[in-house]
Design a protein that fits this description.
homodimer, alpha/beta, Rossmann fold, Rna Polymerase Sigma Factor, Chain: A, 3 domains, 7-stranded parallel β-sheet, globular
């Protein structure tokens, strides 16, 4: 096997550093061609450059370029091409010396480079949720046109991808799949009553039972908005109607998701909750390579897996996202943008946990949806959603 | 899709009738080209001929041929070619108007037709355990040479086949698979102590918790010899050493088996315990076709799946089979043949449940194993095993 040449957009974040951890463990099989990161942790990016020696680097602005240049000079490292801003991200995406683009940035920053990599027919290891939630229809259309492969890095979507690979490879997902079974732990409030949830605190909501993640996504798990956004992602990634996507509560987070085929057979993927597993899979796709980092799981040691139906009444965010996923318009984008602002407000202690869906409902009710939105429509809708959410929160 | 043309060897048995039940539900997609059955239930075979109108029929002898001919005459059915004996089974297997051969007979009768179908490069829906247990090395070698596809019909092996299909298709099972996880319910004695098992009766052993099967295979489940024979089958079907095959006890029989890949990912197949699922899958392989017969499963309705390590001390038959699977010689064949006789003796009330492994151990200890046995060696070893088992039982 020739070494995989990878580039990472968002190399200093959680997915980015875990991707490099896998690259570190497989130096003979992975070479790092490009790294891009924000200004928040330039020192970490410098250390990554020193360790992995990428040929291409992108940072947000001239000041950051200067910082990197100084580091390279002081460390007497060989020269590196540094391109600032969106131009740099797109350069990384288009670079024909790289096989796999890992899009690990948060937010809309990921959309343009993802589309650029698709146009080059690359393998995209997609960890940037916004790209699929807001611009899924554009991504899917372009990927089909350019025969690009999008390998999801979300554990649920990676599980579905692995489970339906034979159908994907012969382009028969539409005829062979009855349902995608998207599993979710149910979050910290799974066993709480609706009444108890009225008084849920920030600390209660931040206690995720299985996964250790950032604050925003942990709150999304508590509201189950996270599972809702995953329905939207799955809808586009696998090109199936929402009616064929079902959420199953699975508190142990071992079955990462499954596929029910039209013949009644269910195939699913299991593993310990560790993001390095879907990252590793995406980096080496379509091959399976022995992992030096992913912890092994024993079913007998786990002992028990349980499953339940989700409670849509207790988790109105899940219902909101389902509805937004059903209509192919700008609603999903608005839901995503408004959710970021509303969750931020909750994290600052400004609103109650149960106010999260209430505020989102208000924003959505005021939105005039645009059918099959263009990239510009999407950026506008996102901005509108954030502004309107701020207004609604202070009303 | 062109209709699949199938032939069934053993059409009046459990797998045979279930195969025809699926053909009945999919008349536009499946045509029955050939049927073969024993003399035990000729009336059922006649009804099958009337309903499915095969072109080729095989029965054991001239008397049975006469019976079928009389039926066809009295019912004024169009003429059917009827070939008696092994010649008939091989004719069904070699028939170039048939795409899939379902080998649903019990015992060594299945070996020759299976090998004949392999030489024609057909798809073989394999439900005949003896073929793989005793002659696995011959089957595998021949299948590779003639690019024949063996799709297992056992629920466990079908689950493994479905789970590792991408690796199978690119011929990468050796490098991509860490372990096969063969699940088993643990049978009726899973929760019994070793002491309690000393007094287990025929009735106790015949109470299988999940599957409804014939008496012999139900006893094999109770001793776990069944799981042991499945280890031997899996070893050949997927060409992996026994050290990579692990038995996991799973009392609910929902996860039918799974594959642990070298990257730590576990992919498994689930469904209700119903043989029509693996049969349906094998008939339509490589496509997935909506099933009219397979019952649907809801994970939330099932609620709970549990897993445990097997207890080799309580189930010595499992250890015996594991050992026989490790050495590639005539031991597996002897174990299988002797087991049939010993289980029969138990069913007749002649020996205690715990005497089953004790008698098998004695037969095995007296066997002089033959390395890479030929088909003739296998038939000899089988006969020797049965005779020696009878001797040991009466000693």
């Amino acid at each position: 096997m020739n070494p995989k040449r990878i580039s990472i957009i968002g190399s200093t974040g959680s997915i980015g550093t875990q991707t490099l951890d896998i690259a570190r463990a497989h130096k003979d099989l992975i070479s790092v061609r490009g790294l891009a990161a924000g200004s928040k942790n330039l020192q970490l990016l410098c250390e990554q450059i020193k360790e992995f020696r990428p040929a291409l680097v992108s940072v947000p602005d001239a000041a950051a370029v200067e910082h990197i240049k100084n580091f390279i000079g002081s460390e007497k490292l060989p020269p590196v091409e540094i391109i600032p801003g969106m131009e740099g991200l797109v350069a990384l995406a288009e670079d024909d010396q790289s096989d796999v683009l890992v899009t690990a940035v948060v937010g809309f920053l990921g959309v343009k480079p993802t589309l650029a990599a698709i146009k080059r027919g690359k393998i995209i290891a997609l960890a940037n949720k916004e790209t699929m939630v807001a611009a899924g229809h554009l991504v899917v259309e372009l990927a089909a046109k350019h025969s690009a492969t999008i390998v999801p890095v979300d554990s649920e979507h990676s599980a579905i991808f692995q489970s339906l690979l034979p159908s994907l490879q012969k382009n028969a997902v539409q005829t062979e799949v009855a349902k995608l079974l998207l599993t979710g732990s149910g979050g910290p409030f799974r066993t709480w009553s609706k009444e108890q949830m009225e008084s849920a605190t920030r600390e209660d909501a931040l206690k995720h039972p299985n996964w250790s993640m950032g604050a925003k996504i942990t709150i999304d798990s508590a509201t189950m908005m996270n599972k809702g956004l995953e329905i939207i992602e799955a809808r586009w990634l696998f090109n199936l109607p929402v009616s064929k996507i079902q959420v199953v509560i699975h508190p142990q987070s071992i079955l990462h998701s499954a596929v029910e085929f039209v013949d009644g057979s269910i195939v699913g993927q299991m593993g310990l909750p560790d993001m390095r597993l879907p990252i590793h899979y995406a980096l080496f796709y379509p091959d399976r390579v022995p992992s030096e980092r992913v912890p092994r799981m024993s079913l007998a040691a786990i002992g028990q897996l349980t499953f339940e139906e989700p409670d849509l009444e207790k988790f109105p965010c899940l219902a909101l996202a389902r509805e937004a996923a059903t209509v192919d318009d700008s609603k999903a984008c608005v839901l995503n943008g408004a959710n970021e602002i509303v969750v931020d407000s909750f994290l600052k202690g400004e609103i109650k946990f149960v106010d999260i869906p209430r505020n989102l409902e208000r924003v959505l009710s005021e939105h005039k949806p645009i059918k099959s939105p263009s990239l510009e429509d999407i950026l506008d809708a996102d901005q509108w959603a954030r502004e309107r959410a701020r207004l609604v929160l202070t009303a």
